[in-house]
Amino acid sequence: MDKTKLLPDYLPPKLPHREKEMKRLEQLFSEFFEGKMGQKVLLVGSVGVGKTALSQSFGREVGKRAVYVYINCRITRSPFLILVETMRKFHPTFPSRGYSTEEVLNALVEHLDKHDQKLLLVLDELDYLVETEGSDFLYLLTRYPEKNPEAWRIGILATCKSRSFLDKLDASTLGTFIHNLIELNRYTADQLFDILVYRAGEAIAPGKVGRETLRFIADMASATGDARFALEILYRAGCLAEQRGSPQIFPEHVREAKASFYPELKKHVLLELRPQEVLTLLAVARRLRSTKSAYVTAKETYETYQVACEEYGWEPLAYTRFWDNLERLRALGFVTTKLVRGKGATTLLSIEEAPVEVLIQELERLAESFGKTVS
Question: What is the mean pLDDT of the chain?
């Protein structure tokens, strides 16, 4: 496994399901690249929807049309340092003292004018800078062309997490961004699956991870639509498989990887389950373990449940009451369900929150403590 290609700072050759937004960026910056006007664009979206990757990919595609500079505002935390770091793209020894922020900006514009260059400045996590330093820097960038018309040569592509960021801007700065805003929606489960298939193809040898396992991860991450979270689960699951000498990344590795984010097993909630609920959850976990699958059907799990009842001396419930227990376990977050439509509708069951092996051990202890009964 090439772990570097699953890390957050890796920029893949293409970004599945962000082609439309990339095309929109090209349209918005077309006149800037042609030398007709300046441009400022804002990418808005929650964590893991591809803001950073999209801005960097666009910068990579700029080529000879402009000089591309990427700044993360959470790392480079002041307007002055942002401009100094940008100047050092052209003058590596540019001093970090002796100039005001506006003087550095003026020196930058003069350089661009003298060499007939354009600059695409990506300001990632701009909302963090505004939160800590205020919006004066954006106001300066917005109004500076009135003082020096050649400031059009600086094009800005910024990112932020929420539209609420716009409330912190003055009217002039807001007017600059509000008409050039691209909102990135959260990824759907199908889109996350496509991303995982693509990135697994880059990072993992053929046959080492199945499509069902990747679909399982996509379903896990779909609640937030966070591709970064999905890729982190795949990364951790791959590391676990390697450590165990496993020939493949299995769903159980995925469960354990996700559990490492949230290590508690909800043992206090397990203790509140009724005996038949414990046996129902045990059946789901055992079925998943025996099949090494991401999902199992309710019908086949009922068969495993009947065996568990016989093992621990309990009378099996009718299927409808077994289903009621599954519904309560789903509401408590122990079991996830997914409806698949084919010739008919089939309900698939899974466990995402904990490794089934660990869960089985806890449930077997509980089942043994209940004693035997036929009611």
Answer: 91
